[in-house]
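Could someone model alpha-D-glucopyranose with this protein?
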Amino acid sequence: MAMKPSCRILILGRKSVFFGFPIPPPKCHPSFTNNLPNFRLNFGHDRKLYSYSPRILGSQCVIDRTQKAFCAPNSSWGQSRVFSSTCNVDGVGRGAYLIARVASNVRNYSTSVETRVNDKNFEKIYVQGGINVKPLVVERIDRDESIGRDEESRVEVDAENVNNENSKDLNEAEVLSVPKEESEIEREAWKLLRDAIVTYCGSPVGTVAANDPGDKQPLNYDQVFIRDFVPSALAFLLGGEGEIVRNFLLHTLQLQSWEKTVDCYSPGQGLMPASFKVRTVPLDGNKFEEVLDPDFGESAIGRVAPVDSGLWWIILLRAYGKITGDYAFQERVDVQTGIKLILNLCLSDGFDMFPSLLVTDGSCMIDRRMGIHGHPLEIQALFYSALRCSREMLTVEDGSKNLVRAINNRLSALSFHIREYYWVDMKKINEIYRYKTEEYSTDATNKFNIYPEQIPHWLVDWIPEKGGYMIGNLQPGHMDFRFFTLGNLWSIVSSLGTPKQNEAILNLVEAKWDDLVGHMPLKICYPALEYEEWRIITGSDPKNTPWSYHNGGSWPTLLWQFTLACIKMGRPELARKAVDLAEKRLLVDRWPEYYDTRNGRFIGKQARLYQTWTIAGLLTSKMFLENPEMASLLFWEEDYELLEICVCALSKSGRKKCSRGAAKSQILV
Ligand code: GLC
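Reply:
Sure, complex below.
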């Protein structure tokens, strides 16, 4: 949606004070250089830089058709909707480029980063531990482009110091990954992944969602989606290539401060786009400029809010630090401000009665109407993960104390809420079956007034004796009993669930293998909405017909998160079984986005082929299985301190035994 220049100028007036600092006139500043191969960020050449909202001022990557590039201030500042940065392009696609401003005055003096890691050839990665983990030193030998795939890497792990209670396989004093022949499928996958790379001013900044040469109508699949890029980023990181991930994190950070407008309304400041595209805009003469064009939902089908984008951004930021050891990056002032903006948006007060995030339908991977508005599990699990990441990454100082306190409180309230009210297993369903309703009091058992008739018929037969899961959504008078895979996997990965619950979720996946995995891992949700339910809940969506796409389709990209969860729970064999299944078909089937039918036998009706996160998902899963110690950097164990906060808060509030007892019993499980 193009913005009107006049509107922009008005907005400039309205928003000309950001973080309490006036916005000075636009200037072109060389604040970000990218000199390959020794990737160095130098965000603070000019520490007196002022900051502007990117929408208000843009500078350009101007490329002369004669292949000379030069720096020019953007003459159309205040007019361009898209973000563009000035760059030098040497025609071969390498060079320094400049970002004209940072998001706030606070970001002005970002540190010039002295990375501990040379992206291409690093020797040592210093792995910072979590609360219960002492620093771990990982050594690798001479990495080059093909690192992690076809060369020997030696990893020394101080087993005693790693707290991986469930990851029996990881506690080896020394893990040697044997040099491995790259299989045909891996070779092909890497080639396709590289072909999917998007460059901006000559530097890699992300991967397109799909690269299907036969696709006549790519819609927005030619864009870089934030959520889709995560498995690509992990594949690159595990392969020793940090640059693209770093660029991605920085560019999306710039887009975050965009002045976004959906019709006449502006969503919150910290919102990250769902996706962005690099557009080439012709200029006078033989020149053209490259501009970044974000989509905050204003063009997306259904105008859905990308609530998960900021959460994924934080999760990826932590992963970048953990895998490369470049912790200085996350300490930069602009990056810290980015984290805070996202958190402020998520933690802001509203009318909510629950600690879970209230969102509209389609605000996550399922980005169209599927009856998940309210408090969908996927968002809650990503929210919880992002809070845990932020707590680790936020620099503790006077200015962030309150935020850290708010994060801790929210973490404990959220985990209590989800563990207590989203969890179902045989026993719990039986309790719900016998619920009394219309209870008015603070210590009601049936707090949300769930009518037992809501228990769906399929569930009565489906729930196994052993195992359980987190339901898809909880609202007053409403439990959505569908099994949503992503949310359940992230409950395991982030320890949103108790250790027992996490184990039980994998038990359920194993017990229900034919339903959740079948011929292709993994179902996005189970079961599908059919008949009247499909008509009413999806609005008769022809793409989301029963057992297709978001409505019970099978998504191979979920494999990497499944693998992570399995490794965490010490069950890599389960992941291997799923990877083997996927490997049998993905290459032959040309890497579909999703599969249809009850058991995932057919390539999805409208599935894109050469879908990047399908490709990256498989590669990442295989790399995790080969290097479980790397996977272990990306998950969390139970945090007992959080549980204590929860018990304390509940005791202080004087609320009755039910909740307090429940919090304590969580500690015991
Ligand atoms: C579909 C998916 C969404 C994904 C996008 C790009 O819209 O539902 O999760 O990000 O395609 O692949």
